[in-house]
From TrEMBL:
The lineage of its organism: Bacteria, Bacillati, Actinomycetota, Actinomycetes, Kitasatosporales. This is Beta-ketoacyl-[acyl-carrier-protein] synthase III. Keywords: Acyltransferase, Cytoplasm, Fatty acid biosynthesis, Fatty acid metabolism, Lipid biosynthesis, Lipid metabolism, Multifunctional enzyme, Transferase. Catalyzes the condensation reaction of fatty acid synthesis by the addition to an acyl acceptor of two carbons from malonyl-ACP. Catalyzes the first condensation reaction which initiates fatty acid synthesis and may therefore play a role in governing the total rate of fatty acid production. Possesses both acetoacetyl-ACP synthase and acetyl transacylase activities. Its substrate specificity determines the biosynthesis of branched-chain and/or straight-chain of fatty acids. CDD domains: KAS_III. Belongs to the thiolase-like superfamily. FabH family. It catalyses: malonyl-[ACP] + acetyl-CoA + H(+) = 3-oxobutanoyl-[ACP] + CO2 + CoA. It comes from Streptomyces aurantiacus. Signal peptide: none annotated. One of its GO terms (cellular component) is cytoplasm. Residues 106-186 form the Beta-ketoacyl-[acyl-carrier-protein] synthase III N-terminal domain. The last Arg residue of the ACP-binding site is essential for the weak association between ACP/AcpP and FabH.
Length: 333
């Protein structure tokens, strides 16, 4: 019998420190109004010293496990661009923190598409009977990569984590994930990047410029690619699912920029009122953005059982991906 990955729990974790636009605007020669009008962001959260990606990931994972009513899983996946260390992976640390020493655990690296890639990976593990339950966490401390002098990135990103528990189940039941659509184009690797720190720079024989240690993004090109790729991927997955755009109750896109979300919705023919968005409160949290949005929308009642839900993301690599599910009846934690 075929098995599907079924969503059975959600959770999230944000740092304590909220950073409103006003706190950043003066140092960047900007204004609260400019930041909000260009991005849709009103505030974001930055981790304090001593808080790492694994801390936020463990917090979100604990809540997702509680929502699902379980204490252990067979595999722990962490989608992140900001691991605690370049080596080892962060997922085994998170698994141990959650009391699952000995459990298979590894990281997924696809920048802002990491969570959707992780969903597909988890679904494959469950379909292949490698695992009956998977904990997937998107977690970031993107503030550690930001150049405080770069207005194009410093106001956009924030820190946080979101998590889901997936269990084996019937492909026809609520919460079952799929189909998926995934893609990449490595020729766009320099559009979203941290130039220094990897093998290419280290083996170049030259010391990196100070700014090369920070995250860099070609804003206009990224905007164009994000709209194009998420729209195309979402259309592909809707065709595979046999859904019409008008049948989608909720579009949950990567929370990159409110204008990008609106463009994607408009191009797909989905009313903007059906877009799930929390970017005004948390900013762009990269791989954490979709699971954070899912948990917040579940908590406030936006996502209701039976709602047809479309997920789509775009990130560095370049990478993109989409998936669909019918929202299940989950406990409130």
């Amino acid at each position: 019998m075929s098995r599907a990955a079924v969503l059975s729990g959600v959770g999230s974790c944000l740092p304590f420190r909220a950073v409103p636009n006003d706190e950043l605007a003066a140092d960047l020669g900007s204004s609260e109004e400019w930041i909000r009008s260009r991005t849709g962001i009103g505030q974001r959260y930055f981790a304090d010293r001593g808080t790492a990606t694994s801390d936020l990931a463990a917090g979100a994972g604990e809540k997702a496990l509680k929502c699902a009513g379980v204490s252990t899983v067979d595999v722990v996946l962490v989608a992140t661009t900001t691991p605690d260390r370049p080596c080892p992976a962060t997922a085994p640390v998170v698994a141990a923190r959650l009391g699952m020493r000995g459990t298979a655990a590894y990281d997924v690296s696809a920048v802002c598409t990491g969570f959707v890639y992780g969903l597909a990976t988890a679904a494959g593990l469950i379909s292949a009977r490698v695992a009956d339950r998977v904990l997937l966490i998107g977690a970031e401390t993107f503030s550690t990569l930001l150049n405080p002098r770069d207005r194009s990135t410093a106001v956009i990103f924030g820190d946080g984590a979101g998590a889901v528990v997936l269990r084996s189940g019937d492909p026809a039941e609520p919460g079952a994930l799929g189909p998926f659509d995934l893609g990449s184009d490595g020729e766009g690797e320099d559009l979203i990047t941290v130039p220094a720190g990897g093998s290419r720079q280290r083996l170049s024989g030259t010391e990196p410029a100070s700014d090369d240690r920070y995250f860099a993004m070609s804003g206009k090109e990224v905007f164009r690619h994000a709209v194009q790729r998420m729209t195309g991927s979402a259309r592909a997955v809707l065709v595979r699912a046999g859904w019409q755009a008008q049948q989608v109750d909720h579009l949950v896109s990567h929370q990159a920029n409110l204008r990008i979300t609106n463009h994607v919705a408009d191009d797909l023919g989905i009313a903007r009122g059906r877009c799930v968005s929390n970017i005004a409160e948390v900013g762009n949290t990269a791989a954490a953005s979709i699971p954070l949005a899912l948990d917040h929308a579940h908590a406030d009642g936006t996502l209701r059982p039976g709602g047809r839900t479309l997920l789509t993301a775009f990130g560095g690599g370049l990478t993109w991906g989409s998936a669909v599910l019918t929202w299940p009846d989950l406990d409130q934690v």
